[in-house]
Design brief:
Its EC number is 3.5.4.4. By secondary structure, the chain is α/β, with parallel strands linked by helices. The chain is 50% helix and 14% strand. Strands 1-2-3-4 form a four-stranded parallel beta sheet, sandwiched between helices. A four-stranded parallel beta sheet has the order 5-6-9-10. Strands 7-8 form a two-stranded antiparallel sheet. Helix 6 packs parallel to helix 7 and helix 16 runs antiparallel to helix 17. The chain is globular, with a radius of gyration of 19 Å. The N and C termini lie close together (11 Å). Bound molecules: 2'-deoxyinosine (2ND) and zinc ion.
Length: 357
């Protein structure tokens, strides 16, 4: 039986890779931009939403990233950051996401005088507000925050220390993002070594716009717990009736290193030519630790439910596969093991059992 979209929305979902500054509501951008006189490509929310998707459909990660100038520009005050975070929590909850790790780069939100700590505090307050409101409405969601350092900049050590400073207040991990080619993860080795000494968790955007060397560095030099995208690991797999894994692909699979795959985003930046041809099909068949993610809901005009629905349509997946992606994500989350298990056993498994029956 084909799975209906409304049922996918109802099914509990876990999301590990979602950017706060890539998920604003267009109407919120229009309002916030008016308050700070930031010129937008359109002041009509519907048109603006379409502009983001079209502009991000560039086939290049560098041009895709240019669209963030408009979201980052309106996220420069504590009030704006709190509002955007609260709306993010609510929007994810309404979409049936029960656990999300949402990331952003604090260093990009200092233009109007906030300190790094104030930026983080505002976002954490917004998540608390949004999750509280969602819980009151009967939609429980847990949000963990990841702090990102921009890989072209030189603040990763500072952002790593900021992450550790806020670890008991909702920050559960660290990441690096931005243009990948020319900015290898080893540029930030000091930060990763510091985080390892602190027993902290981190993921690295790698294997999206650049291939195997980036993935290899992220894992073998930097010690990443997960791969942000990591989709280019297929370059180390020889396809055929019996696919053959190279050393790196075998290592990633053997060690159960989670892949934060983002199907729509990859099609937009040219990392995959279509959803149907996205390597997620092969990687799932080979039982890599695959997870499904949104990356940037605004730039892709998407949601967790939509990403799942696209996969159902392209690969004929049923509830068994959707549950597998969801449990994979929950197993790979950066919150403590007992809390992950509680969500899997008490929320995810009972809901899918019902949907499957
Ligand atoms: O998919 C991505 N790859 C690399 N960098 C990205 C991606 N999506 C968003 N970013 C960047 C742009 C944002 O401003 C920054 C922090 O969220 O992370
Ligand atoms: Zn990303």
């Amino acid at each position: 039986m084909a799975i209906g979209y409304e049922d996918i929305v109802k099914a509990p979902k876990a999301l590990l890779h979602d950017h706060l500054d890539g998920g604003l509501r267009p109407a919120t951008i229009v309002e916030l931009a008016a308050a700070v006189d930031h010129p937008l490509p359109s002041n009509d929310p519907d048109e603006l939403g379409r502009w983001f998707v079209a502009a991000a459909n560039s086939g290049s990660l560098e041009r895709y990233l240019e669209t963030f100038a408009h979201t980052v520009a309106v996220m420069q005050t504590a009030d704006a950051l709190r509002r955007v975070a609260a709306e993010c929590a609510w929007d994810l909850a309404v979409d049936g996401v029960v656990y999300a790790e949402v990331r952003f780069a604090p260093e990009q939100h200092l233009d109007r005088g906030l300190t790094l700590d104030e930026v983080v505090e505002a976002v954490l307050a917004g998540f608390a507000e949004g999750t509280g409101r969602a819980a009151d409405a009967g939609r429980s969601i847990r949000i963990g925050t990841l702090l990102t350092a921009m890989r072209h900049a030189a603040r990763s050590q500072e952002i790593a220390e900021l992450s550790v400073r806020h670890r008991d207040r909702g920050v559960v991990g660290f990441d690096i993002a931005g243009a990948e080619a020319g900015f290898p993860p080893t540029r930030h080795l000091d930060a990763f070594e510091y985080l390892q000494r602190e027993n902290f968790h981190f993921t690295i955007h790698a294997g999206e716009a650049f291939g195997l060397p980036s993935i290899w560095q992220a894992i073998q030099w930097c010690g990443a717990d997960r791969l942000g995208h990591g989709v280019r690991i297929v370059d180390d797999i020889t396809a055929g009736d019996k696919p053959v894994l190279g050393r790196l692909a075998a290592y990633v699979r053997d060690k159960r290193i989670p892949l934060e795959l983002c199907p729509s985003s990859n099609v937009q930046t040219g990392a995959a030519s279509s959803i149907a041809e996205h390597p997620i099909g092969l990687l799932r068949d080979l039982r890599f630790r695959v997870t499904v993610n949104t990356d940037n809901r605004l730039m892709s005009g998407t949601s967790m439910s939509r990403e799942m629905a696209l996969l159902v349509e392209a690969f004929g997946y049923g509830w068994a596969e959707l549950q597998w992606f969801t449990v994979n994500a929950m197993k790979s989350a950066f919150i403590p093991f007992d809390e992950r298990l509680a969500i899997i056993d008490e929320v995810i498994k009972p809901a899918y059992a019902k949907l499957r029956s």
